[in-house]
Design a protein that fits this description.
Length: 219
C-alpha cells in the first residue's frame, strides 16, 4: 500500500491514534494476491473506482488496521490495541451455555448464547495476562466484509470469521468491529463483539444472530 508521501507493504499500518494520510492500494501490490486472501474482495472493491473518494480511503485504512490488529496478537503489541479502542469501547463476548433443568423440571432452550460485557480496561488487562501466559498466539481471518452504516455517516462495520489459537486455548467464531471515522485524524473502534461459530458439534450459530452494523447506533 502507499500513502500520499511514501510506499508501504500491505501489512504496514500507520500508528493508531495518530493522523493518517491518504492510503492508496495499487493494482500492482494486489495483483498477485489470490482470492483465498481474506482481504481480496474488499481490496478489489476499492480498486474498482466505483466508491466515493472518502469511502474508499476509509476502507483502505480499515484494511491496514485489521491486518495490524491480527499481527498485534502474534507480536503481543498491547500499545497498538490500547490506542485502537476508544475509552468507552463496548466489548461483548459470547459463550454457549448448556441446557440445564429449571426448578420446574423443564429445560432452557436447547442452545443459548450468554453475552458478557467488558470495559476497554478490563478487556486489555485480560489480554495482558493472556500474552504473558502464552508463548504463541495466532489469529486466522476469513469471510472479511466491510459495511457502511445505513444512516450514520462515518461509521463502518467489519465482520469476519476468526480462528484463535494459543498454547492454552483455541476457538472459532465471528468477530464484529464498529469503526468511527467521524474524527478523520483518529479512527477508533467503539464496539468489539465475538460470538462462537458453533452452538454444538452440529449446530452453527444462525446467520440472523450474527452481529453486524445494523445492530448498533452511536450518538
Amino acid at each position: 500500500m502507499a500513502s500520499s508521501s511514501e510506499k508501504s507493504s500491505p501489512g504496514n499500518v500507520p500508528s493508531a491514534g495518530k493522523p493518517h494520510t491518504t492510503c492508496i492500494i495499487s493494482s500492482d501490490e494486489w495483483k498477485n494476491i489470490g482470492k483465498q486472501n481474506p482481504f481480496y474482495a474488499e481490496a478489489r472493491k476499492i480498486l474498482s473506482g466505483k466508491l466515493a473518494e472518502t469511502d474508499a480511503e476509509n476502507r483502505q485504512v480499515i484494511l491496514n488496521y485489521v491486518e495490524h490488529l491480527r499481527t498485534s496478537y502474534t507480536t503481543k503489541d498491547i500499545d497498538f490495541l490500547t490506542q485502537l479502542f476508544s475509552e468507552e469501547a463496548l466489548i461483548i463476548v459470547g459463550k454457549v451455555i448448556r441446557s440445564t433443568p429449571r426448578t420446574d423440571g423443564k429445560y432452557l432452550p436447547q442452545h443459548q448464547v450468554e453475552y458478557n460485557i467488558k470495559s476497554k480496561r478490563t478487556y486489555l488487562e485480560r489480554l495482558k495476562v493472556l500474552f504473558k501466559q502464552n508463548k504463541e498466539i495466532n489469529l486466522l481471518f476469513s469471510d472479511f466484509k466491510i459495511m457502511r452504516h445505513p444512516t450514520q455517516e462515518g461509521l463502518y462495520g467489519v465482520t469476519l470469521r476468526q480462528k484463535y489459537s494459543s498454547d492454552l486455548y483455541s476457538d472459532d467464531g465471528y468477530l464484529f468491529l464498529l469503526w468511527d471515522f467521524r474524527d478523520e485524524a483518529t479512527p477508533l473502534i467503539h464496539v468489539r463483539t465475538w460470538q462462537p461459530r458453533m452452538l454444538d458439534d452440529r449446530t452453527p450459530l444462525p446467520e440472523d444472530e450474527i452481529f453486524n452494523i445494523r445492530n448498533f447506533n452511536l450518538q
